[in-house]
Design a protein that fits this description.
192 residues, nine-stranded antiparallel sheet, alpha+beta, 15% helix
């Protein structure tokens, strides 16, 4: 476990066998392009300049969410201390497997499809299901709050990164291989 001023970094008990089981279950699900949709003027085309990956959705009631929730609760109790009520959205299964697939700088704030009486996304979690030796590139970067510097992490399989949903972050372009993660957002009442 590692906590810094802007993020919480924690190992889970997910190993290669469990990760492969999760991937096997979810790779059978329908994956769609995970780009950013542009305005109606552009016929709602997917813009892959900002985000280029494949995504699928699993219910926040899926068993894997229990592992993720435990990480969020620990991070929140020990570090963030936000007023949380539950998952803000379903969990996103994210696959970066094409050369240059990526997600450029962004933050996770948003209010669409909020669940569990959540008004605001407060904490984001990214749980890695790929071993870092399975892909080149694809580093996670987080802009440190109020500073120009950033952290760069290439997490081991089974590690979770928890950070405020307001934090600017990205996944650098993949050079080769396949990077797979589960991404979720935990929320609560609006900040005061």
């Amino acid at each position: 476990m590692q906590n810094k001023a802007d993020y919480y970094y924690i190992p889970t008990k997910i190993d290669k066998i469990i990760a492969n089981h999760i991937i096997g279950l979810l790779d059978e699900e329908f994956l769609e392009d995970g780009g950013i949709t542009t305005s109606i003027q552009n016929n709602n085309l997917v813009n892959k300049k900002i985000r280029d990956c494949k995504i699928g959705w699993i219910s926040y009631t899926h068993w894997i969410s229990g592992v993720m929730v435990n990480c969020i609760i620990e991070a929140n109790q020990k570090f963030f201390k936000y007023d949380l009520t539950g998952w803000a959205n379903n969990i996103q299964y994210t696959v970066y497997d094409q050369k240059d697939s990526k997600y450029n700088w962004h933050c996770d704030t948003g209010t669409a499809n909020l669940l569990n009486k959540c008004e605001t996304r407060k904490l984001s979690i990214s749980l890695l299901l790929s071993d870092p030796n399975e892909y080149e590139g694809g580093e996670f970067q987080l802009q440190l709050c109020g500073r120009k510097d950033m952290i760069t992490i290439k997490p081991p399989l089974g590690y979770a990164i928890i950070f405020p949903s307001t934090s600017v972050h990205r996944v650098r372009p993949i050079k080769s291989g396949r990077r797979i993660s589960l991404v979720g957002w935990y929320g609560g009442p609006n900040f005061r």
